[in-house]
Amino acid sequence: MASQPRGDIAINAEECKGCGLCVESCPPKCLELAQELSSYGVHPARYVGQGCTGCGICFYCCPEPGAITVYRLAPPPKVTVVVQGGEHAATL
Ligand code: SF4
Ligand code: SF4
Question: Whose CA is nearest to atom 7 of ligand 1?
Answer without folding.
Answer: 26
